[in-house]
Amino acid sequence: MSKALVVYSGGQDSTTCLFWAKKHFDQVQAIAFDYGQRHLVELTAAKQIADNASVPIHIFKINLLNGVSHNALTDQNMKVEKEQTGDRPPNTLVEGRNMLFLTYAAIFAKANGIKDLITGVGQADYSGYPDCRNEFILSLNQTLNLSMAMSFRIHTPMMWLDKSQIWRMADELGVFEIVREQTITCYHGIKGDGCGNCPSCKLRNRGLKKYLESKGK
Ligand code: ZN
Q1: Cα 79 to ligand 1 centroid, rounded to whole Å
Q2: Residue 6 Cα, ligand 1 centroid: separation in angstroms?
Q3: CA of residue 206 to ligand 1 center, whole Å
Q4: Which of 85, 92, 180, 201 would staple 194 via disulfide (CB 3.0–4.6 Å)?
Q5: Span from the CA of 203 to the centroid of ligand 1 (angstroms)
Q6: What distance in Å separates the CA atoms of residue 148 and residue 36, rounded to the nearest whole number?
Q7: Number of folded domains in the chain?
Q8: What spacing in Å lies between the alpha carbon of 189 and ligand 1's midpoint?
Q9: pTM (2 decimals)?
Q10: CATH code for the domain in which residue 16 is found
């Protein structure tokens, strides 16, 4: 029986991954992290969606991530930048987040006899987050294998898909409405179509518009 673990956040990409995983593996579990993000509604949404999909979800607290550096997703006093400026990544970047999430996920996976890890990161709509790049995932995969003497396989079904293609995938998986109505991608923690103004909403809604237009809706 094939088993997989999805790194889950309750957002558009990881929710689509969750259902992608259900299609490709017999037994799917999800792991999510409370890292002091502003909006715990994200985790509530993640739990609800996972429960409805009959996917066991394990939520762990890793508050340290919030203490060692500052960013707009965990620091209530920092405003989310509307647009990216200059060469540096946007202030919503949580340094090291994907590396830590995948590392904890791998530790959990090994303890539970799981080799296949799934993450919704991608670089098609490159947002300036270095740990969303394929190069990083390949490197971490190797490091995790070496560190735990395991042959993990990190799957990134969204790696080369832009947002409109991710909407298409959700539709093909039969979960378009679930993703549209129940996920939270908005930096202000608003479910579904979100606030419409933050960079994350703009990206998501632009992709949705493009997908709906391509379908002739
Ligand atoms: Zn928003």
Answers
A1: 13
A2: 24
A3: 12
A4: 201
A5: 10
A6: 28
A7: 1
A8: 7
A9: 0.90
A10: 3.40.50.620
Token couple for 23:
């299609």
Domain enclosing residue 63, as ranges = 3-214
Please report, in tens digits, the pLDDT of each residue of the chain (217 residues total).
Answer: 999 999 999 999 999 999 999 999 999 999 999 987 767 888 999 999 999 999 999 999 987 766 676 666 666 666 666 665 666 666 666 788 899 999 999 999 999 999 999 999 999 876 678 899 999 999 999 999 999 999 999 999 999 999 999 999 999 999 999 999 999 999 888 999 999 998 889 999 999 999 999 988 5
- Residue corresponding to tokens 């998986």: 173
Centre of ligand 1 from the C-alpha of residue 162, in Å: 18
Show the tokens assigned to 30: 């999800």
Q: Which residues does residue 7 pair with via DSSP β-bridges, in sequence order?
A: 31
CA–CA dist 97, 24 (Å, integer): 26
Neighbours of 214 (CB within 10 A): 12
